[in-house]
Amino acid sequence: MITIKVPATSANIGPGFDSLGVALNLYLTLEIHEPTDTWEVIHDYGDSMPSDQNNFIVATALRIAPLLKPHRLVVKSDIPLARGLGSSSSALIAALSMVNILDNKHYTQDDLLQIATKLEGHPDNVAPAIFGGAVAAFYDGTTVFHAPLHFPESLSFVTFIPDYQLLTEKARAALPETLEFKQSVAASAISNTLVAALAANNIKTARQLIEQDQFHEEARAHLAPELAIIRRIAHQQNIIGTYLSGAGPTIISVVDETEAQQLMTAIDLAQLPGKTYHLHTDFTGSIVQTND
Ligand SMILES: Nc1ncnc2c1ncn2[C@@H]1O[C@H](COP(=O)(O)OP(=O)(O)O)[C@@H](O)[C@H]1O
Ligand SMILES: N[C@@H](CCOP(=O)(O)O)C(=O)O
To answer: 3-state DSSP call for residue 174?
Structure first.
């Protein structure tokens, strides 16, 4: 049996729209079992998720390798669907990794990133899902340029996952088509400076910038009302900043490890519809294991 393990990801990290992302310690695992006559996907997502060649993982694999031989697959995941934690990117990387193995493609991690970004449209989830850690990336429509962003290791992520789903497609449809020149300059300067501050462990500057996104959060605020509520709660504590994870609706507060429990308790007291988790950076990224 072959097992592919891919982490969840949180994209944007505030002002880094479509460019910054970090891998988190929730995982999708895809087990590849024996060859079969037709594709069989065993999962516990419920009846609305296909269990045959129409399953997203198989369909994605067949887009890349239409003649791939069917196998019995088992998918296990603690990454919730359509919550802004990159479930579709993790599934996509699992699919491409399966093609890599079954079709002997010899894709490097960089090849995977280029193909995955073409399929996903933006690199900020797929890059950290492949490499682990935090990544900054830019896709010009043809090529992805990327570099690791070394976060201070003491940072962790208090993560509120609402009970409701929000498809990324719907949250992207809420975005403006254009951004005025002056605002674009500010938005990109905020993002650049946040990246430099995080890389330099300059927490004071990171704290001043992480909630200053000008690209997407305001346009999406009505789709994820918990963002404003959790920000208010978090501002009463010693946190670094709170942002909309990916397209939402998950809300993440970046905190020093030692401050996490106090914030989780405060969020839980607000009794919002959802659950709070204390997540950490996954530094490994996607891995493939061959078991007997
Ligand atoms: N493990 C999986 N198996 C099959 N399809 C999946 C899986 N994970 C995600 N998907 C597909 O991706 C959709 C969610 O993607 P998206 O709206 O981009 O949200 P997010 O990536 O933030 O979780 C799901 O509704 C489902 O169609
Ligand atoms: N930059 C994208 C990230 C989408 O992430 P997801 O986890 O919600 O799929 C966006 O903000 O649309």
So the answer is: coil
Distances (CA, A) of 122 to 18, 35, 79, 126: 6, 33, 19, 8
Protein residues whose CB sits closer than 6 Å to any atom of ligand 1:
28, 49, 55-57, 75, 77, 81-89, 91, 167-168, 246
Atom 4 (ligand 2) nearest CA: 246
Q: Is 121 annotated as a binding residue?
A: no
Give the tens place of pLDDT for each residue, 147-183.
Answer: 999 988 899 999 999 999 999 999 999 999 999 999 9
- What are the sequence ranges of the domains in the chain? 2-149+282-290, 155-279
Do the annotations mark residue 80 as ligand-binding? yes
Domain 2-149+282-290, classified CATH 3.40.50.620, yes or no = no
Residue 18 near ligand 2, beta carbon < 6 Å: yes
For the cut 90, the answer to whether the pLDDT of residue 59 exceeds it is yes
Tell whether domain 155-279 is in CATH 1.10.760.10.
no
pLDDT of residue 292: 65
